Amino acid sequence: MNTYPNFKFTVNHRASDSRARTGLYETPHGSIETPAFIFCATKAAMKGIAPTDMRAANTQIILSNTYHLMLNPGSERVAKAGGLHKFMGWDGPMFTDSGGFQIFSLGHGSVAEEIKGKRSGSRNKSLVKITEEGAHFRSYLDGSKHLLTPERSIQIQRELGADLIVVLDECTPFHVDKRYTERSMLLSHRWALRSYDEFARHNDGKQALYGIVQGGVYPDLRKIGTDFVNSHDFFAHAVGGSLGATKEQMYDVVGMTMENLDPKRPVHLLGIGGISDILNGVEQGIDTFDCVHPTRLARHGGALLRPSLHPEVKPNRREHINLRNAIFQEDFNPIDPECACSTCQNFSRGYLHYLLKAQELLAMQAISIHNVFTMNRLLTDIRHGISNNNLAQVKQYWLAS
Amino acid sequence: MNTYPNFKFTVNHRASDSRARTGLYETPHGSIETPAFIFCATKAAMKGIAPTDMRAANTQIILSNTYHLMLNPGSERVAKAGGLHKFMGWDGPMFTDSGGFQIFSLGHGSVAEEIKGKRSGSRNKSLVKITEEGAHFRSYLDGSKHLLTPERSIQIQRELGADLIVVLDECTPFHVDKRYTERSMLLSHRWALRSYDEFARHNDGKQALYGIVQGGVYPDLRKIGTDFVNSHDFFAHAVGGSLGATKEQMYDVVGMTMENLDPKRPVHLLGIGGISDILNGVEQGIDTFDCVHPTRLARHGGALLRPSLHPEVKPNRREHINLRNAIFQEDFNPIDPECACSTCQNFSRGYLHYLLKAQELLAMQAISIHNVFTMNRLLTDIRHGISNNNLAQVKQYWLAS
Prior knowledge:
Two copies of one chain form a homodimer. Chain A is an alpha/beta fold. Chain A has a domain at 65-291: TIM Barrel (Alpha-Beta Barrel), CATH 3.20.20.105. Chain A is 42% helix and 17% strand. Chain A is built from 15 helices and 16 strands. Chain A has an eight-stranded parallel β-sheet with strand order 6-5-4-14-13-12-11-10. A three-stranded antiparallel β-sheet of chain A has the order 1-2-3. Chain A has a three-stranded antiparallel β-sheet with strand order 7-8-9. In chain A, strand 2 (21-27) and strand 3 form a beta hairpin. The longest helix of chain A has 27 residues, at 361-387. Chain A starts with 7 loop residues before the first strand and ends with a helix.
């Protein structure tokens, strides 16, 4: 019996000189052309962008974070509204994470503070405690105690109702040793099986479950991690765990992981969103990416732009310009003369610079729309590059300074 | 010679039982059907709404405030960008005020604080001083000293380049005596003539000048004020000065003013934006209105709604509901089932309630769009009501609880 009767992933074209591939990812809320970028509507809302504007910027798929939604408004209320799609007015494919990432990043942040000796009153208690059962943590909103088990994560994600959902894992921090990484991976595997069992008990065909590959930066552990997910009935895989401390190490880790993953399943790279990182990930065979980077950058005035379009900014290796910079005060050109987004059609760099200085809401919104449009344009170029066997030219176009 | 060759105001239909009228107001950036509402893009931006979304919400005309723009980014920079229309990406009709209103409201606010004994350090100096020459004031941004003369106000408004511009006047506060009101009116008349002369010296046909009727709540002074503007070559008139302390007094003052104003010229009522106030103003013969109310209200969670659509909210005489109210937590209906705006098509009251609680930017934006759309719907209904001789029914529809 097919666990996922309403989902299908078809590889359409493979690059001759890398693992890059294009595909069609079919879900109950429509299809995604891959490689694709998944935008973060963290709390069931894109910050300052309506779903219709996300569509107009060619967005295929968005995600929301289980951690935030379980605390507010609660998955029960989202279910009463008819699920996340109806609740937030997005009718396309959606992804939710397990809730683990935010729990653990808060927890490890707290540990980090302890190591640095920044203890003060109640702050020196770690915000997260991991047991075999699950992750015990306190709400960032009101300090209330919660326990997220693999079963609970799946129950919440079922109530939220996204198309693509994820097993609970422990997100290991950087700088832990191999022994810790291995133990953590094995715990995550046990949690993954409990997640799958909970998923299978109530599977109505509307959701597809992702397994996560752990193993940190260690090739032998990554091999165990990939063998684990390949051998279980997940619809898709996500590359998780520590990807190392540098870009080079990240590329290595993604490479060693992709070598062994089942090529028939779609693969998501968690939390990576830089232009060069995406191009590298695509060459390793990654099908989908997600990151808060494009929209968070926008809220701080950063507009995505390939380096050769901003020779006036030194150093110009960066993949964006900061519109708060005074050099844009009387620059009445669009952010990007090649961009067809509504922001570049209507607003100049100088106007956006002014809006940022005047703290007008419209600035964040307009730059966010440009960045979303630009990410979608990058991924469209990448798909064309793979189909036309000229991905190298696409890479040159987007990265050359 | 016609001072205003590119402007035309045509009355199309008059109500039989009131001074209500429909008209077509032609400007170099397009025509406005009147009665019309002018939305406040205070600092050359609607807070959280792109010009394309303003258009989609049926907006005909917007205004920006000279006071804010002269201080930041400065009219010179706006001129370098090609004027306000190009600077902010709005290609329809625009209105700017003289800058006086904000200067004087800040100044009188300061005086009010002195009266209440709230003196502290440098705060006890009034922020504004009026001389025959103009208004001396300090910037709210950096405390720098400025002098706004009638000539300077017109120069700035010329550099900004709105279609409709306004003479500088002294905005008299409430609660001044008749003697003060009269002296203030006569000063405003001298300033109006200086404004007109400056306007005429550089008139290129692209802008139309408004005269302002002063006179406070006093019928004899209002008569002098209306005679003054009627007898000079203004394209249009604005009802300014104190309109009294209550709604009844405001209706009286507007009524006594409208009785004597030249019926061939369009008339603007400054700063009035409630649904019932607009309906009353229309019956008095007002052609255009402006107010921050619809969008400011939205940013605090208030969604415009005619009273009969929210019987569950007590008292239900109000013209809006506050979506922060917990009764909307699980109300998954649109704000207004009769509304065709993008917000009512895509979002529920419960979702907007959640967004407000979660402090998501999208809440302000979505409710603002609803309120803009609703104001434009009200004015469309009013125009149809006048044309079809059933304004009373329109009034009943929008106000009955």
